[in-house]
Recover the amino acids of this structure.
């Protein structure tokens, strides 16, 4: 394990302290830095005001949410035609690529597979 300093911690990191005689003897941190992720399925709901798309993955009865905003997310059809969030409709099949940050899926690319 590589030794770190206090300056290596980031907001949101999960920290476990070991304390002996009122002194911290060990710090173990788990980073909550962004990690990549993806989801695909049928759009079950959309809220353009909040930038949220609900998607039901194939074979699942539950929907998952992706935070997608026009300024931060690229929307395209499978043919490569540029779209906007308002063009997404319930019932369309989509593939969303993005990151998971703090437990929230943030869509960076939304591909409309079927229109």
């Amino acid at each position: 394990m590589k030794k770190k300093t206090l300056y290596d911690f980031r907001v949101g990191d999960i920290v476990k302290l070991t304390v002996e005689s009122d002194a911290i003897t060990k710090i173990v941190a788990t980073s909550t830095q962004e990690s990549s992720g993806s989801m695909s399925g049928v759009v079950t709901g959309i809220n353009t005001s909040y930038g949220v798309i609900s998607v039901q993955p194939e074979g699942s009865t539950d929907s998952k949410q992706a935070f997608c905003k026009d300024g931060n997310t690229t929307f395209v059809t499978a043919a490569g035609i540029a779209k906007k969030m308002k063009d997404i409709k319930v019932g369309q099949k989509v593939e969303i690529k993005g990151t998971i940050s703090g437990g929230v899926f943030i869509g960076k690319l939304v591909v409309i597979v079927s229109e």
In short: The chain has a mean pLDDT of 87. The CA atoms of residues 43 and 92 lie 6 Å apart.
